[in-house]
Inverse folding.
């Protein structure tokens, strides 16, 4: 299998990349890790006139923690680099739990977090993680920079709100105001498979009570599911069994899975319920131990 | 080499995009004019006749096409040849130096880590990348690092042994002992 014909450019400056896309009048595509786009090109599901490869743009491969605890992840930070980041392991439990189950180790040496969020695969993992963490994406275009919350960024299956020829240059996880806790669980049929169902949870605690909560689900809807009501149910709780059960019920309700070769809709909803309870139970145990 | 798609019978339009690439493959600089849509796997196999890089699934799943690009394992069926411009690529043909096998190759030989051999080049390069990063991996770490590479024949046991063998050899330890230790542990676990 090989793709149809396209032109290729590998600019060394961001403005040049935007210009190349602009010149292609809507027919150009950004190439980041290529781990979703190249398979699509090979299947001829995409036929851009030009690929604008951003892999040679300088200074986009960073994973930075600010002094206030915010994370800034550049468009060329690979899944594998996030996996090896001590800062992520130490400070960001939701992302740390997700990254080893994103694709397989070899795909992870190319694929990027920002590319995954842009790709907006309903079964992708990063959009769910970023929504649970109140994360945002920074887009750069002819009019300059703008920041978009990931929950508003992903609008549907393989759809985002980037306005051509904008390029996403960074993903940000905001500074926590309380103690950070979180988790990610995904059911996959085998290593490297997309989620049958998955749940991402990001919490902050103040004086033992939940002061911020985000829950997002993957694989169980036409797009990444932002289970806002489920998250809301945890606010001000100390993860008692009532709050946990209520959140799990609401998360299962928010999901709208389809029956397919990965499992029935009921089964997937059941998995969501179990995963939300399981992640929260784990966090509650950690909290008790710390107290 | 102008285009690697000469064998395709479609009439060729006048404006076929072509890019010049210079890629260091197994230590040698190779230059070619290629269509941007050419995959690195095809550049290596058809262009350079380095057929040790296998294409199995062609869908980024099996890892048979794994090569090292700037030291990192990548699936060459999912990288464009033009993306390797200016980079260093190592294929299975570049693992041995002269007649001296890479320790991973020796390990695969010693521990019978292949049957049909289809997955072997990709497996060995993924293993080499692991050992470069982590000279003393546990069994779990070996299995995890190779989880993007599928083998339909061996059941993976001997592959894990081969990698532990190579790791011990690289560390200057007795590779046979390292494998015996692993085998003894496995036996214990099965009783
Ligand atoms: C075998 C296999 C298994 C996988 N399993 C999983 C999995 O379990 N979970 C998961 O989440 N993902 C999985 N993936 C997908 C993988 O994570 C991809 O890396 C990711 O979806 C896309 O990131 P990329 O950098 O490779 O983007 P690319 O493939 O380069 O691009 C994807 C899309 O996003 C656009 N894009 C990329 N970057 C930008 C940017 N900076 N600005 C604007 N647009 C941009 C591109 O134009 C394209 O439309 C898997 C992939 C494979 C091949
Ligand atoms: S041929 Fe490239 S991953 Fe299977
Ligand atoms: S030895 Fe046959 S596929 Fe691995």
């Amino acid at each position: 299998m090989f793709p149809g014909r396209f032109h290729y450019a590998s600019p060394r400056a961001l403005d040049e990349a935007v210009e190349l896309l602009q010149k292609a009048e809507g027919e150009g595509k950004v190439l980041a890790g290529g781990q979703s786009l190249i398979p699509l090109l090979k299947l001829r599901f995409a036929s851009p006139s030009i690929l604008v490869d951003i892999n040679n743009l300088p200074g986009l491969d960073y994973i930075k923690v600010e002094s206030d605890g915010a994370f800034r992840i550049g468009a060329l930070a690979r899944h594998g680099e996030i996996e090896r980041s001590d800062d992520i392991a130490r400070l960001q439990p939701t992302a740390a739990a997700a990254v080893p189950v994103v694709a397989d180790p070899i795909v992870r040496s190319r694929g990027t977090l920002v590319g995954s969020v842009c790709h907006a695969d309903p079964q992708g993992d990063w959009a769910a993680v970023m929504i649970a963490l109140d994360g945002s994406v920074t887009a750069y275009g002819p009019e300059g920079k703008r920041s978009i919350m990931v929950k508003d960024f992903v609008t549907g299956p393989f759809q985002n709100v980037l306005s051509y020829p904008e390029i996403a240059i960074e993903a940000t996880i905001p500074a926590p105001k309380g103690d950070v806790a979180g988790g990610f669980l995904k059911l996959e049929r085998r290593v490297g498979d997309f989620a049958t169902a998955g749940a991402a949870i990001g919490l902050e605690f103040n004086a033992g009570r939940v002061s911020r909560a985000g829950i997002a689900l993957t694989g169980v809807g036409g797009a990444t599911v932002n289970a806002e009501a489920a998250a809301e149910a945890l606010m001000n709780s100390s993860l008692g069994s009532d709050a946990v059960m209520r959140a799990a019920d609401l998360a299962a309700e928010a999901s709208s899975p389809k029956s397919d070769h990965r499992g029935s809709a009921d089964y997937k909803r059941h998995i969501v319920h179990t995963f939300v309870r399981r992640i929260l139970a784990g966090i509650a145990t950690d909290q008790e131990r710390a107290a | 080499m102008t285009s690697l798609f000469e064998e395709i019978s479609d009439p060729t339009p006048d404006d076929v995009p072509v890019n010049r690439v210079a890629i260091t493959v197994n230590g040698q600089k190779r230059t070619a004019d290629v269509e941007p849509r050419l995959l690195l796997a095809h550049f290596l196999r058809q262009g350079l006749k380095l057929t040790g890089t296998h294409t199995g699934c062609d869908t980024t799943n099996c890892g048979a096409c794994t090569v090292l690009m700037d030291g990192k394992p990548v699936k060459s069926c999912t990288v464009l040849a033009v993306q390797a411009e200016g980079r260093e690529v190592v294929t299975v043909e570049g693992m041995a130096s002269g007649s001296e096998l890479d320790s991973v190759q020796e390990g695969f030989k010693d521990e019978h880590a292949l049957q049909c051999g289809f997955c072997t080049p990709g497996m060995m390069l993924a293993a080499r990348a692991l050992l470069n990063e982590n000279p003393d991996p546990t069994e779990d770490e070996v299995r995890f690092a190779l989880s993007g590479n599928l083998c339909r024949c061996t059941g993976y046991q001997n592959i894990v042994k081969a990698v532990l063998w190579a790791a011990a050899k690289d560390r200057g330890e007795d590779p046979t002992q390292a494998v015996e230790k692993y085998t003894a542990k496995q036996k214990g676990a099965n009783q």
